[in-house]
Amino acid sequence: MQLLDAQQVIKSQELIERLDASESTIRRDLQELEDEGLLERVHGGAKRIIQLGQEYNMQEKSIKNIQEKKKIAKYAASLLREGDIIYLDAGTTTYEMIPYLPTFELKVITNSVDHAVALTERGIDTIVLGGALKASTRAILGSSALEQLANYRFNKTFLGMNAAHLEFGYSTPDPEEAVLKRLASEHAAETFFLVDASKINNVSFTKVAAIDSGTLITTTLAPALHQAYIEKTKLKEIE
């Protein structure tokens, strides 16, 4: 799948050569991945399926690529400095930052009910935005949240993303969430996009920001992807 992430379309012969596998093995593996809805077989190879509007709920997200998310979250938390005022976006990767947040003076603004509870349990100074609650992700959205957010400025903003793409940038399925994420990024001195490698070179429904709008923190990429992204944006890969 990493090869498909990098190229979107790949030939069976290339897979045979690069993976040192037989034609029958490659054919069987492609069939299994197609059955799982991860790719579409085409003449002589396969192409990646891009599902623009798909969004998992919090429980489903919380068990996907959890070790990668924890690695990204731990590094992101290490970037904080005493006295920082930060925006912590709703999402499972940003949620994983909370156990790693330092104990020095810090103020966190969030649009997540779950984040707010976990932050206050750790004794961290927390402001939770008010507005409409989205049941599937427990994120607070809408005009009230936007109006409140417009009055704040941040040293750092940390955003989870459904997809990152060289041309389309960072994107998410929900237009309301996209607007809030965009504003939080625009009001920050620095923005960090937390995106595990499974979401790289994917596209979701609504664009949030250009790929060079901040630092991309991700897990280890295939060499071709690494080179492509490092030429376009600030990149930090976590092994």
Report on this model:
With 239 residues, the protein is α/β, with parallel strands linked by helices. The chain has helices at residues 2-7, 12-19, 23-35, 58-62, 66-77, 92-95, 113-121, 143-149, 175-186, 223-230; strands spanning 9-11, 39-42, 45-48, 85-88, 107-110, 125-128, 132-134, 139-141, 154-160, 163-165, 169-172, 188-194, 206-209, 215-219, 234-238. The protein folds into two domains: 1-48, Arc Repressor Mutant, subunit A (Orthogonal Bundle); 58-237, Rossmann fold (3-Layer(aba) Sandwich). Helix content is 35%, strand content 27%. It has a seven-stranded parallel β-sheet with strand order 6-5-4-9-12-14-15, with helices on both faces. Strands 1-3-2 form a three-stranded antiparallel β-sheet. A three-stranded antiparallel β-sheet has the order 10-11-13. It is elongated. Residues 57-63 have low confidence and may be disordered.
